[in-house]
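Below is how a single chain appears once it has passed through the pipeline. First comes the sequence as given, then the structure the pipeline wrote out for it. We keep one example in the README because the format questions we get most often are answered faster by looking than by reading.
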Amino acid sequence: MKNGGWASLTLIYLYGVVSAASLTKAIPFQAHIAGLPGSSPVLFGLFISLMAVLPAIFGTLSGAVIDRLGARPALIVAALIGALVNGLYLVSDSFAQFQVIRVVEGAVPLLTYAAAPALMIATSAPERRSAAMALWSSYTPVGTSLGLLISAGFAAGEHWRFAYLTHGAIFAALAVIGLLMPAAAAAGAVPTGARRSILGLLKSPEGIAPLRLATSFGILILLGLGVSVVMPPFLSHHYGITLGAASSLMAVANVVMILGSTLSGVCLTRGVRPASLFMTLSLTGSLAGCGVFAPWRQIGLTLSALVLWLICTGAAMAVLASLLPKVAAPEHRASTAGLLSQTGALTTFITSPLWLAVLALNQWLALFMIILVGWGVSTLLLPLQARTTSR
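Resulting structure:
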């Protein structure tokens, strides 16, 4: 496999996709998991968030570990852990066991989300870098769709745990295929002895820019993942469709975010300023988000607004991803990617409980405010590097 070629970059991307599938895989199983001994419907939102514990605590430090371990071994180890935890779900019979496994499952994104983007940046040519990062930025929507699709087919039956068997098999296959990745790609371009800690990162010439980028990224995670989490029960409740059907519908709709990522990649490679593009997406996304939860009577209007929302969020994530190599020197890229992962995990931890609680209130204004404030703050936090051209 050619180092830095599209085959290699796509393989790295797939690690992110399959890891992200872990976030939403359990959503169609709400009734099954809530029915486990020691569980309840109220605890389900907390269960979903437990996967973010390890990334929220160790996300930035994972960059330092990966600099030493190497990105290729880190991705393979992440895939092996993914296969292991899915196997444990198959044989566990209590909610307490599910909770422990969910926490351990967080090691998968902990390694993947720091190693994969740093490796893509290090191995891709400068002229290919914006396109590569635009591709990477779509791992969340594609991954969450994959998670919903894996589980949607099993949600209504007694063999719902077969979804974990399927996901574990995919992880095992990735671990094997990862051995084909050139060993040289794992080393990246990190100078020997470079400071890799978050303290070293923030004291670097880049200054506070990585922190601003990570915070803006975390807010978009809160918005994008939040809508993905609540849309299946929202559609099921308001339009009378089954939760499995609503999950499948959301899974298909999420793929539209790839279109947004692609559009951003094209604009950025043609010299459009990231800040100008992001502001346009912020305004359009705010309107679309309000339309998603407006009290329409026709599901077609809700789905149309949802498609526009997904395009905007996908495009915005691509803009932020394109800024990662701009705000971090080569010796700090793994740490910066880890910082983004940690910030995203912190917001992921509160996303499901927050959005599910607000949805339960059935207050449209509260949902609108989350969307409007989120887009506004995310725009204000863009690093100064966003005001330059993308080249």
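The chain has one domain: 6-183+195-387.

See the next section for the split statistics.
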